[in-house]
UniProtKB/TrEMBL annotation:
Claim: Heme is one of the keywords in the record: no
Protein name in the entry: GTPase Obg
Oligomeric and partner information: Monomer.
Segments forming domain Obg: 46-204
One BP term from GO: ribosome biogenesis
Superkingdom to which the source organism belongs: Bacteria
Gene source species: Botrimarina colliarenosi
Function of the protein: An essential GTPase which binds GTP, GDP and possibly (p)ppGpp with moderate affinity, with high nucleotide exchange rates and a fairly low GTP hydrolysis rate. Plays a role in control of the cell cycle, stress response, ribosome biogenesis and in those bacteria that undergo differentiation, in morphogenesis control.
Organismal lineage: Bacteria, Pseudomonadati, Planctomycetota, Planctomycetia, Pirellulales
């Protein structure tokens, strides 16, 4: 039977049900031409994760061996049992290029391998390799059960042994003595340490942007750096810190962090306050953005005082001095009416100069960036 071109084009081997053009084919009139293409089943979504708890278990040491030398013409061979190998440890390493704790979210249990057991002929068991967990610089590793900080990994390459592997057991060769020529004693390998660890990331940046929700922090970061934070006209658009590198020229640059918006009661945990405030700890200079015309009709000067109060309260709780950290007070959205008056009120309240800028028009951005650099490097001026 001859097959014409129309029949050949409708052959089942030529149809691809997951392709958009196949759904609009005339070969199957029952399929609607308006059906959209099937989306990916497992799209990859990047999420900033700055706190996670995992269980770690170091490897067990290998057992020692009880063995005796048995060779021809050696009727009374002595003991030759080897020692067991050491179990692998769990090691946490700060690594440049890792920017969140995302990997730990999908793997809540980390276990190192056990050491190999000893064997006859004096063969010792092999030590197991360590299990390495890479985290971003700025991660605090805490023992959850004892509320103990194991180490603050602040720089690239910082390392901490989170769980130590068990020691290998002893073979019967170790127990040979002048009074015991054929010992049958041996010891099992030691157990590896088990811990529940909490990893807490505190963003490391030169400059931290502070302000009430929707004050314009993300917009400012996007204008002075290449960062692309989510920007929208509603509060709490930013739910995790965004980092951007501000380049003044080829040899002058600094890292700026957009801290999510703070509200009254943040020091007590309101509005995820503790999650947001801890990122302020690593910054060297704070840039405080005050919106001149808040949508909730609140007083801009009182908004400034509220955030300062929350920072002071948080500093007292942790025993750190954030209150004396250099601060640059600014009025954002200077294109709005009344921004000059708000700046004057803030200068009276703070006793210092208040800068005005507009991310929409670009006015004042260059002066703000220069002031930040001068505050970071006062000796250079």
């Amino acid at each position: 039977m001859q097959v014409n071109d129309a029949q050949r084009s409708c052959s089942p081997t030529k149809r691809y049900p997951y392709k958009k053009h196949a759904l609009t084919s005339a070969c199957d009139p029952l399929i609607s031409s308006h059906i959209p293409p099937i989306p990916l089943l497992n799209p990859t979504i990047r999420v900033f994760v700055d706190r996670v708890t995992v269980d770690v278990e170091a490897g067990r040491g290998g057992d020692g061996c009880m063995s005796f030398r048995r060779e021809k013409y050696v009727p009374r061979g002595g003991p030759d049992g080897g020692d067991g190998g050491d179990g692998g440890s769990i090691i946490v390493v700060a690594k440049h290029g890792v920017d969140s704790l995302q990997e730990l979210v999908h793997r809540k249990h980390w276990r190192a391998k056990n050491g190999a057991p000893g064997r006859g002929s004096g063969c010792h068991g092999a030590n197991s390799d360590d299990q390495v967990i890479h985290v971003p610089p700025g991660t605090v590793v805490r023992d959850e059960a004892h509320d103990l900080v194991l180490r603050d990994l602040t720089t690239d390459g910082d390392t901490v042994i989170a769980a130590r592997g068990g020691k290998g057991g002893k073979g019967n060769t170790r127990f040979k003595s002048s009074t015991n020529q054929a010992p049958r004693d041996w010891t099992p390998g030691g157990e590896g340490e088990k811990r529940r660890l909490t990893f807490e990331l505190k963003v490391i940046a030169d400059v931290g942007l502070l302000g009430m929700p929707n004050a314009g922090k993300s917009t400012l970061l996007s204008r002075v750096s290449r960062a692309k934070p989510e920007i929208a006209n509603y509060p709490f658009t930013t739910k995790s810190p965004n980092l951007g590198i501000v380049e003044i020229d080829w040899d002058r640059q600094f890292v700026m962090a957009d801290i999510p918006g703070l509200i009254e009661g943040a020091s007590e945990g309101h509005g995820l306050g503790h999650e947001f405030l801890r990122h302020v700890e690593r910054t060297r200079v704070l840039v405080h953005l005050v919106e001149p015309m808040p949508e909730d009709q609140s007083d801009p000067v009182e908004n400034y005082r509220t955030i300062r109060h929350e920072i002071d309260a948080y500093s007292t709780q942790l025993g750190i001095d954030l209150a004396s950290r250099p601060e640059i007070v600014t009025v954002s959205k200077s294109e709005l009416p009344g921004s000059e008056e708000i700046a004057s009120q803030l200068e009276e309240a703070t006793g210092g100069e208040v800068l005005r800028f507009s991310s929409a028009t670009g006015d004042g951005l260059k002066a703000l960036v220069q002031r930040v650099w001068e505050t970071l490097h006062p000796a250079d001026e």
